[in-house]
Amino acid sequence: MNQDTICALATPQGIGAIAVIRVSGPDTIQIVNKIFRGKNLEKQASHTIHFGTIRDKIGQPDEVVIDEVLVSLFRAPTSYTKEDSVEISCHASDYIIRKIIKILLREGARLAHPGEFTQRAFLNGQLDLAQAEAVADLIASDSEASHQTAINQVRGGFSKQIAQLREALIHFASMIELELDFGEEDVEFADRDDLRQLIDRIQKVLVPLIESFEMGNVIKNGVPTVIVGKPNAGKSTLLNRLLNEEKAIVSDIAGTTRDVIEDELFIEGIRFRLIDTAGLRKTADTIEAIGVERTLQQIEKASMILYLFDASEIEMSQMKEQETEFMASGTPYLLIGNKLDKISIEKKAEFEQNFAGILWISALEDLNIQDLKAELTRKVKTREVKSGDTVVTNLRHYQHLLQTHEALNNVLEGLDHSITGDFLAQDIRFALHHLGEITGQITTDDLLANIFSKFCIGK
Ligand code: GDP
């Protein structure tokens, strides 16, 4: 248990209607009671709220009222930190906040370190490490999808699953260790077939989690989506149409979009980072050539390519060549036939015979833009683990999952070759170690310090 009582502002700095100051630790209630005029907090039950005033120099002739406040009282162990905690809701003026914190410090609290409330929640067993890390993600989440992922994780997410599998594996590890104690005697306490089955089960859980990492990152950071096509295909017009604002320069002169322009578009809670490019025209103009170079780089980095073409302008062979390149890159792409308003039915049919899945739109006339948006989200979602499934977004978790996976593969291989128990035990221990690192059953102080230092003070 921590002996210090800590305090910090839990709401953002600056002027607002209400600010919340958090206090947590063994002396919380006694300290707050000393500066609070209202009911005697020491006699109040947990999960109660009390109106009163915070005062400086209580009982002295120059006693002053700092603010009228609401004090929410939580008694150990039923608080976020599992310690006695109080939240003081005061008026959000910098002066009041500073003054209240100063008085709290004078009465024996100390200022909390970044993430210290959540760290205490972890150390006191309220959250496991993966959940604590998800608290940081939850606070930072800025789209529906990233919020959903973080909240799933805070509420248990894959930690619970990992912890259960780890338990089962520990059982086998101890059986094998027991065999080792018997030394020369040829005994097998750990049934090898059962072990193999358990590992298969664990791998079935690990693999989707590992694969979800890419998707998780997409949710967290957005889907980098690059719009490519020949000059004048209508890329800037489409970008403007999607974003409903005049961001890119639209012009009739080929090759005017020289810079890479990036913007964000939210469709059904998914964030698309749209990147307009200088087009793919081979060029002698050096400024434009830099743009083309950058376009190629953007394609490499993108998670999705929107290829925009004007069927009345482009050669079929040129487009085939382009499609082959996209296929080779492995990045999902969408062929979008623009200027539907002026393309003849014959032209359309001709392209449809040669290319599958063309989506016809008119960026200028606003035709089929909703279909395009629906197709964008569909493309993301079909690569996505089904909704409600767990998604790994944290690089640290991902790395430990990978290492567990590898160690378990080694165990399977060992079983195939009937290797001795001590080698099996070694790989199993390795797997247990990495699973434990995820949920925090095994941690080092450095790791903890690193994780919680990323929080802000008051969290
Ligand atoms: P970019 O070079 O690919 O960025 O192309 P722009 O967006 O600058 O468009 C080139 C020209 O095509 C402009 O004159 C646009 O108004 C025109 N344009 C774009 N979309 C359409 C469309 O759907 N129909 C028609 N008729 N013209 C379009």
UniProtKB/TrEMBL annotation:
It is found in: Cytoplasm. Transmembrane segments: none annotated. CDD domains: trmE (cd04164), TrmE_N (cd14858). Its main location: cytoplasm. Binds 1 potassium ion per subunit. GO terms for molecular function: GTP binding; GTPase activity; identical protein binding; metal ion binding. Residues 222-381 form the TrmE-type G domain. Mg(2+) binds at residues 236, 257. It is an enzyme of class 3 (hydrolase). The keyword Zinc does not apply. Coiled coil: none annotated. Its EC number is 3.6.-.-. PROSITE patterns: G_TRME. GO terms for cellular component: cytosol. Homodimer. Heterotetramer of two MnmE and two MnmG subunits. Belongs to the TRAFAC class TrmE-Era-EngA-EngB-Septin-like GTPase superfamily. TrmE GTPase family. GTP binds at residues 232-237, 251-257, 276-279. Keywords: Cytoplasm, GTP-binding, Hydrolase, Magnesium, Metal-binding, Nucleotide-binding, Potassium, tRNA processing. Its cofactor is K(+). Exhibits a very high intrinsic GTPase hydrolysis rate. Involved in the addition of a carboxymethylaminomethyl (cmnm) group at the wobble position (U34) of certain tRNAs, forming tRNA-cmnm(5)s(2)U34. K(+) binds at residues 232, 251, 253, 256. GO terms for biological process: tRNA methylation; tRNA wobble uridine modification. HAMAP family: GTPase_MnmE (MF_00379). This is tRNA modification GTPase MnmE.
